[in-house]
Design goal:
This protein is α/β, with parallel strands linked by helices and 262 residues long. 32% of the residues lie in helices and 26% in strands. It has a single domain, classed as Rossmann fold, CATH 3.40.50. The chain contains 9 helices and 12 strands. Helix 4 packs across helix 5 and helix 5 (149-161) runs parallel beside helix 6. The chain binds adenosine-5'-triphosphate (ATP).
Amino acid sequence: MSVTRVALELEAVTKVYGERSPVLALRGVTFSVRKGELVAIVGPSGSGKTTLLHVMGTLERPTGGTVRIDGVDVDRLDDRGLSALRARSIGFVFQQFFLAEHSTVLDNVADGLLYAGVEVRERRRRALAALERVGLADRASARPTQMSGGQRQRVAIARALVGRPAIVLADEPTGNLDSVTGASIIELLHELNAEGATIVVITHDAELAAGLPRQVHVRDGRIVSDSAHDRDLRPGDRTTSRAVGATDGVRVPVGAEQEDRS
Ligand SMILES: Nc1ncnc2c1ncn2[C@@H]1O[C@H](COP(=O)(O)OP(=O)(O)OP(=O)(O)O)[C@@H](O)[C@H]1O
């Protein structure tokens, strides 16, 4: 398989729900996320954010257009192939956490590797490492019911990350949390991104989105602004950063290359 710096790519993606009175939820969405980016998708209720997340995450097929995950055109895959791609390449975090209440925290995270063909001891070893990354290694044997909302969301994030997916998609991850706890989850996403994780966060919270390096605004099923492109349109602005891949390691100020030559 070819190596790509693009984690996810959408080209002219449309999504129509229903037939009799069709709802055009996505009206031609084109954008891409490079490896190592942390992107906020923001927009009002009903603008198409969740539909977009479902299409990006291959939970739903688009009506038209192309979706590529880690270089693979998902249209070429049957449902089984799609499930395998999802298990390998995408981690999901949802507002409602979706943890198994009767399993331990460790097993909840280890279950993120169920379809990765990894034997149980190795699954648990990697799960413990993921819990360490989110600061919850000491709660590995607890049950989700014994934890706060913020801790549960950390467990869900560890589960999403445990398979080292190409991309993590988070749908309103702070929606069920108070603002202080929500801020700590966003801080955690920043830390994980700094360590190399590629993350897309869907939110209707403009303030939360403003703190992330790239904001994509959705309205009526269309992208109406993308801060990455806005920056591209202002090449003279030497203080502006452009997003680069995780393998690049750092964010490069536009124009820095020229300055280095002097
Ligand atoms: N399964 C479905 N069947 C029919 N219409 C749908 C379905 N899912 C979403 N829609 C419609 O598609 C449009 C986009 O919905 P979507 O849930 O993606 O928006 P959203 O921005 O995530 O909204 P919210 O912030 O309220 O969750 C809306 O008009 C919605 O009513």
